[in-house]
Amino acid sequence: MSTESNFNPDKMKNLVTLCKRRGILFQSSEIYGGLNGFWDYGPLGVEIKRNVKEAWWHDMVQSHNEMVLMPGAPSKFEMVGLDCSIIMHPQVWKCSGHYDLFHDEMVDCTETKGRYRYDQMLGRWAECKGQKAFITADPKAEDAEQEIHRRAMKFFNLRAKDEGELKFTSDLTSLTTLDDFSQVLAPEAKHVGTLTEPREFNLMFKTIVGALGTEENAAFLRPETAQGIFVNFRNVVDSTRVRVPFGVGQIGKSFRNEITPRNFTFRSREFEQMEIEFFCPPEESRQWYEFWRNRRYEWYLKMGLSGDRLRLRDHEQAELAHYSTGTADIEYSYPFLQPGEFGELEGIAHRGDFDLRSHMEGKLVAKDGQLTLELDENGKPKHRGSGKDMSYFDDLTKKRFIPHVIEPSAGADRATLAFLCEAFQEDQAPDENGNMTSRTVLRLHPRLAPYKAAVLPLVRKDGMPELGAELYGELKEHFPCFYDEKAAIGRRYRRQDEIGTPFCVTIDSQTLVDGTVTVRDRDTLEQSRVKKDEVAAFIEEKIKK
Ligand code: GAP
Question: Which residue from 36, 224, 329 has its CB within 8 A of the most atoms of ligand 1, so it is best to mutate?
Fold first, then answer.
């Protein structure tokens, strides 16, 4: 487990700049000033994110071999996929609990009209000339302490030379520790006491289905892909030959009206999830939970995240939902997080039979350690389930049961961001004159790199471009490839390094003589001489690892 800090605002700034400059990520609707919490992937970004999703889909769903017992698994199992609609029957969200419970508490500032997540507001008590105030930082501030200091100086009208008059009487603390807000200076506000009491704010985006436009036709954009899998449990069992234990994978967009979207794509309002709902017999669920928890952690390591920056954090008993015997988060120390802080990349939850039973019986709640139907004030079920049988009959053991669920739930955007942060490095490499100078390199796993190779004729004459174009056409049949004949060769290498191309194939004068080319390795900078006709196989062998 890691304790290493990766905090590096400059690195983050440089990565964001690179993403914009090289077409990896753009602010959504940028020409209109952007829309907070929404992002567009550019021509290279779309390839990287697709590669992340395809690697996940391939490794978890498509290439899964149900005939083989995987290390650590209690038994063999099957995997299938689904692609469900984003808008579902509103009753889905009532039974899942999202309608009543999926909310954040927020506070509004009556002076600036700013809106903030209550649990994310940090501040410090400050005193000056007998006056006291709780000075907050904007949750988006890079350095909260520095921002609070700056704001306190301004609020108490102090010049730099009078700094000694200012006293901070508390460390950085959450707004949630305060009983009253009358002395709170909200972010960007000039006066204290402008924050409202916390209010609940449902995070689901609402829309209207159909032309009538009435509230009765209200529906929601899904806040998670998981529910599509639960409500199709019967369909999958009835239409395929899967037997419990089996898993269903789904990749797709989810939407949450986050109060404070921030940290690049980390917390967005529209994002993609890669979720598995794994259905198993109740008595095996603990073992399956352990299996998935470890397997998913290993996957990130295999795809290039460093063990120093990745950790698997088991939730404390008190953090667990009543029906869960375990939940673990896979967390990454993103460079925008303060030293010691980690951000969630994926959650692996043991969900018991909560979801299938809720969709069968109606919305469940915990009472005396048991799940029971939630009733309204008249003693009627608060939200009715579908009434459909969600149990499973095992024809080998002749037992009928409601399967338990293990849910590894990952974010495609958060994973892409973690891979980009990990890959973004500045090191030294020889330039076109052979001098070691600094270079920016994206050391992406070859499976994630947008192009696997670039074909670069050394000069634009002597038939080299023609040979290059021919080789380019051939390599493109095998993997995504880029052709570039403009600028000095050293500059062209650098341009490929910073977008993560693992191999550069150069056509030079020797190619004209013996038909060999050089293949330059992005990471080791080694150059191998390879026959032109063997380049595709040479690179394919290296990128398949
Ligand atoms: N079905 C379970 C579920 O949705 P979650 O922890 O709320 O669990 C799972 O979300 C994953 O989805 C997170 O670990 C994260 O990677 C991603 N995710 C959640 N909210 C997100 C947001 N606002 N922006 C980007 N990714 C998000």
Answer: 224
Residues 6 or more apart whose Cβ sits within 8 Å of residue 184: 123, 133, 134, 136, 175, 178, 192, 193, 194, 195
Percent of the chain with pLDDT over 90: 86
439-544 — its CATH code? 3.40.50.800
Ligand 1 centroid distance, CA of 196 (Å)? 28
Residues in CB range of 482: below 8 A, 6 or more apart: 451, 453, 454, 455, 496, 501
Residue 3 has pLDDT above 50, yes or no: no
Residues in the chain: 545
Is there a common fold for 9-35+48-102+205-418 and 439-544?
no
pLDDT of the residue at 35? 96
**For ligand 1, atom 4: residue with the closest CA:** 224
Averaged over 227-237, what is the pLDDT? 98
pLDDT attached to residue 6? 79
Residue 440: band (very low, low, confident or very high) from pLDDT cuts 50, 70, 90: very high
Measured in angstroms, how far is the CA atom of residue 273 from the centroid of ligand 1? 7
Q: Is the CB of 352 under 6 A from ligand 1?
A: no
For the ranges 205-219, 502-516, 528-542, the lowest mean pLDDT is seen at 205-219
- Top mutation candidate among 263, 409, 413 for ligand 1, by most atoms within 8 Å of CB: 409
Q: Is the CB of 482 under 6 A from ligand 1?
A: no
Name the residue type at position 408. Answer: P
Please state, in angstroms and as integers, the Cα–Cα distance from residue 436 to each residue in 427, 431, 443, 498, 525, following that order: 10, 6, 18, 16, 12
Domains of the chain: which residue ranges? Answer: 9-35+48-102+205-418, 105-200, 439-544
pTM (whole model) above 0.70: yes
The CA 410 to ligand 1 mean position distance, Å, reads 7
Closest CA to 39 of 49, 27, 51, 48: 27
**CATH T-level fold of 9-35+48-102+205-418:** BirA Bifunctional Protein; domain 2 (3.30.930)
Residue nearest (by alpha carbon) to ligand 1 atom 20: 267
**270 pocket-lining for ligand 1 (C-beta < 6 Å):** no
Measuring CA to CA, which residue among 305, 301, 325, 300 is closest to residue 315? 325
* Whether residue 250 has its Cβ less than 6 Å from ligand 1: no
Model confidence at 349, in pLDDT bands (50, 70, 90)? very high
Render pLDDT for 250-270 as a digit per residue (tens, 0 to 9).
999 999 999 888 899 999 999
Instruction: Give the chain's mean pLDDT.
Output: 94
